[in-house]
Amino acid sequence: MFFPIIIALVLFASSSNANQIEFDYCVADPTLPHGPSGYSCKDPTKVTTDDFSYSGLRTPGNSSNIFKFGVAYALVNQFPGLNGMGLSMVRADIEIGGAGPIHAHRVAELAIVTEGTVIFGFIDTNNKPFYKTLEKGDLFVVPPALGHFQVNVGKVPAVVYAAFASPNPGISTVDLSLFKNDLPTEIIQKITLLDSAQIKKLKRGFGGTN
Ligand SMILES: *[C@@H]1O[C@H](CO)[C@@H](O)[C@H](O)[C@H]1NC(C)=O
User: Fold this and answer.
1) What is the pLDDT of residue 207?
2) What ligand 1 atom has the least distance to the C-alpha of 65?
3) What is the mean pLDDT of residues 173-182?
4) Whose CA is nearest to atom 14 of ligand 1?
5) Which of 59, 62, 71 to mutate for ligand 1's pocket (most ligand atoms within 8 Å of CB)?
6) Is the CB of 62 within 6 Å of ligand 1?
7) What is the pLDDT of residues 95-130, one digit of tens each?
8) Disulfide-capable partner of 72 in 38, 61, 94, 96 (CB 3.0 to 4.6 Å)?
9) Domains recognised in the chain with CATH numbers
10) Which residue among 63, 64, 180, 206 has the greatest number of ligand 1 atoms within 8 angstroms of its CB, and so is best to mutate?
11) Within 13 A of 175's CA, how many CA atoms are on the CB side?
């Protein structure tokens, strides 16, 4: 009776995160291939405190774009100490009147507003929108893979920090998926019902062709 349970536990443990059983940490060695469970480990004798610290979020991301939305990233590619930890973070700066365009990640996100007033929301798979005006100090959690957005509705630039349940959460932004590549206008027209003039205008704005 116990044997199958033990087998099941062993399988579960080995599939959940082998790194956490074998090692205290596995700082990424980005020169080695990146697989489904992350990067291979940097030589542990070369790991230092600096591998567990990252200052890149002191500086806002570049918000000189059509959304007035800048993102600074602390994902595994910027912060190799996150490898195998199941965590990462970004800092989003949203200018007055700006917005975070609708996008999705592979994993859950937990955000905190640290400056300003922001409408934060997502839309579930029944097409139901959930959104709320957040003030400094307020949190919002976004379920995995659902489209979500932020709108600065305050009188000052807004700052939001968001943590992800993965060192490499991925980002898929609807406008960029549609208009920042060479997917033909005729196909986009069919799959969105937008008219071709609007598609071509958005392609020009986002750097797409075709
Ligand atoms: C911010 O992005 C804009 C538009 O891409 C670019 O022209 C500008 O040089 C960037 N600024 C910085 C500080 O990188």
Assistant:
1) 93
2) 4
3) 96
4) 62
5) 62
6) yes
7) 999 999 999 999 999 999 999 999 999 999 999 999
8) 61
9) 3-170 (2.60.120.10), 171-210 (no CATH)
10) 64
11) 17
- Ligand 1 center from residue 32 Cα (angstroms): 31
Q: State whether the beta carbon of 45 lies less than 6 angstroms from ligand 1.
A: no
DSSP secondary structure letter of residue 64: -
pLDDT at 12: 39
Higher pLDDT, 19 or 104: 104
Residue with tokens 């392609």: 203
Instruction: Name the amino acid, one letter, at 208.
Output: G
Structure tokens at 42: 């940097």
Q: Which residue do the tokens 């007033």 mark?
A: 117
Name which of 123, 120, 169 is nearest 147 in CA terms: 123
